[in-house]
């Protein structure tokens, strides 16, 4: 313990007059007796000095001495050393979309206030949103830090990586406190978790056309993140009508809803879930098909598996001429095709096809065309021996034979696929439409994605624009609200669906098992208010005792 | 038990002094005297002959004797005329002389004395004797004759309830009282006897042929005063004060002085043929009354 004003201990000298007055005070007490004559002959007692001193030391004197001691102690302003969480504290407030649930933002602010009040400072406050924002720079004023909390505004977007947000403060902080409703993926810092309220949400929404092209199927996943059964209604809206479905969803479970949608061609879909709750943004989800139709000129033999995969990957239609894509299947082309071409077991002019050979084990190169594929499941029986241009890049091998090669030549982009499809399991795999979709993405001209998240940036190609609140936006565009946005492009009108991040609707992942231990800092707590507080009942007791003694 | 208190008429005064339970205890006690000194007929057998139903003796027949008193059975056996003699039943008046000076107010002494007086009056009432309460200070306060019966008891209780301690103790007033009340009876002097002159007072009572008992009542402040340190001792009757530093030695000296004083009182009582009793004021006055009825046999 230390003292801010040690000279105040001189007030202890006031004990001297207190003691003198105490011993000088006449203490004769009156006692009524029945017979005074019995006391007449009695000699007064002369006790020992120490005995008299002991008699004079009564409770009142002790209280007075104690009061003087406490008073001197209070004036000397004692300071008690104590440990508080480390002084410099960086508060990272989660500002992602899930915080917009009812009460979460208030909980985060409340926790931030508590952290500020319990730490010594200085503080800085960072909004962990997309983009991250400094709400309060390094300050030693708790009032300023608390004031900055009023500027906390969560956003509908996804939060970036924590390290990306922390990069706004390059200097090291001994203590970093992340206040969030979702502690998943956070490590190495102190985490304060704020509970989330119950929620009903659409956690997945997708639409695909039927293979025959006559209708669509909408896939929805409904999450009941509550503790009660919920009777929910799902409505999918298109430009031509509405489609309804009802489900009783058990608590803490998901329900998959498949909704057939009839009618003509549609490009944009809106799914709505009722009843609404405190986080309505995930009760409405949007979906749009990317670009327009893909016109396909089919040459060679028919293959319904390849055609179904094409239809699943894009809204493909067959045309006799002026195609967007040429698909040649197990044939010999007399002329090289112009433009993007998918050549499956096909021989072209200048690039002859050899014999069928036994295929070896499948292995792939690192290329975007092979993203999201499980090559270990691929089984190919036979492969055509083929000749490729020297500039062609083989991205998939079957043993020592090329299985898939890509060539960006003078005729346009070609993809050579040498597998004998009927001797493989590819048409039966779910990965096959994905492979075709990846190939179409490489073959066809670049199109903006049709599905975006709020806050996700998009660079629009030349000639493309997005209509936002009646105005056309070109170049770089980052949507701020979910919805269906009209995309204007050279080949016609399209749509972009923007949703709030899907993870904002998912249940909270458990916090990290190993708790973070915050660094502690030495602080001095002033004790004088407590000493004065103790002095009050002491003085009161002294007064009561004085009156009781007849003073 | 309720009937005991209710039978007193103005029961509130009685119940303030004695509880129904205490009245019940007292109602079961019986006072027996060796030599009752009353002259009127009562319920106590005296040594004199009389006309009670209690056979006492035979004496030779004398002319004029009532022939109904001749013992004819004895005549048939011995051929001698003998007359039966019976005891006489007389009453025993009770005089309660109560010290009502200011010193009795210390240590519940006066309260004890008043309740003891009430209990004694109730005993006399149950025995059918006359009784009277006479407070004394510098002078006797009440000089009426003793009375018998329920109305007398109610009056005595009311007077006791209204009595308050004041004035000084003066035992010479007992001599004045003895000159006024000349009918011999049982005199109980209730006092702390912490004043000079008790010898003359008790002697005056004895010379008036009363059976006298000195009942000394001392409070805790008299027996073991809790005085310590620098004290100013104030005599409650005389108003005099004495400063004194009281320690263990002074306290022991006081206790020795009290013992000497009480020994003198006891020897005086022994000399005068006066019964002596000492009761602490913190005890039960009913128990004290029962002890007096049991141990004092005048």
How far is the N terminus from the C terminus of chain B?
30 Å
Write the CATH homologous superfamily of the largest domain in chain A. Class I glutamine amidotransferase (GATase) domain
Distance between the termini of chain A: 38 Å
Instruction: Kindly name the structural category of chain B.
Output: alpha/beta
Question: Could you say what the CATH topology of the largest domain in chain B is called?
Answer: Rossmann fold
Tell me the quaternary state: heterodimer
Q: What integer value in Å does the Rg of chain B equal? A: 23 Å
Biggest β-sheet: strands ordered side by side in the sheet of chain B: 4-3-5-6-9
Main beta sheet of chain B: 5 strands, parallel
Strand content of chain A: 25-35%
Q: Would you identify the CATH H-level superfamily of the largest domain in chain B?
A: von Willebrand factor, type A domain
Tally of strands of chain B: 9
Biggest interface: A-B, 23 and 40 residues
The secondary structure category of chain A is alpha/beta
**Main beta-sheet annotation of chain A:** 8 strands, mixed
State the helicity of chain B in percent bands: 25-40%
Tell me, briefly, the overall form of chain A. Answer: elongated
Summed over residues and divided by their number, the pLDDT of chain A gives a mean of: 86
* CATH topology call of the largest domain in chain A: Rossmann fold
Count of the domains of chain A: 4
